Amino acid sequence: MRRPVWALLALLVLMAFAFQGTRGIYEPDEGRYTATAINMLKSGDWLVPTVDGEHPHLTKPPITYWALAASMGAFGRNEWAARLPGALAFVGTGLLVFGLGRRLCPAKPWLPAVIWSLSFAPLVGSNIVSTDALLMLFETAAMFALVEAWLREGPDRRRWVIGMWLCWALAFMTKGPPGLLPLGAMAAFLGVHDRARLRGLFPLTGLLLFAVVAFTWFAIIVYQQPDRLGYFVGSEVYDRVFTAKHDRNAQWYGGIKVYLPVLLVGALPWWALAVAAAGGPRAAWAGLRGSVRERRLDALLLLYWLLLPLAVFFLSRSRLELYILPLFVPLALLMSRALASWPWLTPRRFATIAGLTAVALLALKGTAAYITTDRDARQMAAQIRETLDLHDVVEIAFYDMRAFFGLTMYLDVRAESVRIGGPGRPHSRQLATEDELCDELNEQEHNVFALKRARVQQFTAAVSACGPYAAREIGEFHGDGHEIVLFRILAADPGG
Fold first, then answer.
1. What residues in the chain have per-residue pLDDT under 50?
2. Inter-residue contact 477 to 380 (CB < 8 Å)
3. What pLDDT sits at residue 54?
4. Residues 6+ apart with CB under 8 A from 210
């Protein structure tokens, strides 16, 4: 078994770390995560995340921010360090998939890990600065521990159960309740098919460990400001599941539009080969139905793990592509079971397919660094440097638009959003934090204001209405499909 392990480890490291630092930080998500981590490093406050250095940013628990801050603190403020947690999560998840393969695909235990590591979605998802790669790692670790506990007896089983609850707690601290969806799927699986095992998975020690790790941070945050509990439960749970408030593909067909292409493209070429190995789509469907009728528990476990969380994601009103990234682990295991015994897939053919797939994926990662996009904060920062002297700039305030927080990495300035004050004007859902324009001007910080060209007249009028101020245009750049104009605010001339 040693040679496959070392070969797999080399493959995982190659796929994870090749071209890791070549692509810039993309807006909005990568910019928001990196800015929050940088603000942690600057302020020394690792308890309350702030995306702009001032306002609490509590949309996610802090593990991802901690990982990013630790990485950039150790290796510098750069793209390589920002993507290091995702790369390590990719390697760790791949090794866990190998461990699951030993239990659930014993004929070729390395096959699920190779298929998973050479799938489009896991590789791309791990190269994006977000919560999803770490969530995938912790969910897979929890499921690995659960499978080990399910198949063991005695004291050794209890240790795996305790480890499982620690991993569920880390998953919860990465993304909140969505991190526990596979746990619900496994409870349903064992409740229907193996109730004797279900009772042993909820020891008091494990539940206490989970509560301490998963809820301590939330308890401190709510203790500091009690109304944050309503925000966590209302905005971050209820609204995401049952309402269209977050405007993330909330249409009835949103799940089909978002998740179906990810599943089809994200597992190429392996799902096509797995269907062929099963004898075609109809035979593959018949095989799955046969597994259910015959109560093949290992196959049923994978089906529950894949399908129940996927159903929740389809039904939820908040949908983004990376939400289903952890589900490529059970999908890879299912595909491997079909491919492991396929006579056509000889070692030579498999090596050829795997090699071509690896080259294509690595070429994609390398090419991404040279794609011009107006969501690249590095390219925006280069444009700003050409037109603006930054030596006395503390903050770039984005007027009535979403701030480009990724500029924090490249320009060493804060970014935030400001708006016109006034009663009854709701905060835009796109603005992570907002200050009112007049309050921002009265603070008399060394700020530069950024706004869309179409808002210039509105902005200059709003500045004049705030007091003895005048706006002077000093430059421009392109970002997120718009021409963005830069202004400084000066004291108005009393004589006109």
1. 1, 422-432, 496
2. yes
3. 86
4. 165, 166, 168, 169, 172
Burial (Cβ within 10 Å: 0-12, 13-18, ≥19) of residue 153: exposed
* pLDDT the model gives residue 329: 98
pLDDT score for 153: 80
Whole-number pLDDT of residue 315: 95
Residues in contact with 493: Cβ distance below 8 Å, sequence separation at least 6, in sequence order: 470
Cβ contact 64:440 at 8 Å: no
DSSP 457-480: HHHHHHHHHTSSEEEEEEEEEEET
Q: Assess contact for 437 and 447: CB atoms under 8 A.
A: no
Return the pLDDT at 227: 92
Q: With helix as H, strand as E and coil as C, how does 11-23 read?
A: HHHHHHHCCCCCC
Can you list the pairs that 293-298 forms with residues at least 24 positions away whose Cβ atoms lie under 8 Å? 295/193, 297/193, 297/194, 298/103, 298/104
Query: What whole-number distance in Å separates Cα of residue 380 and Cα of residue 457?
Result: 23
Query: In this structure, what token pair is assigned to residue 109?
Result: 């235990």
Do residues 169 and 63 lie in contact, with contact meaning Cβ atoms separated by under 8 Å? no
Tokens of 413: 């300035």
First to last CA, the chain: 82
CA-closest candidate to residue 361, choices 269, 446, 283, 438: 269
Task: Give the pLDDT confidence score for residue 443 in this predicted structure.
Answer: 78
Cβ contact 447:397 at 8 Å: yes
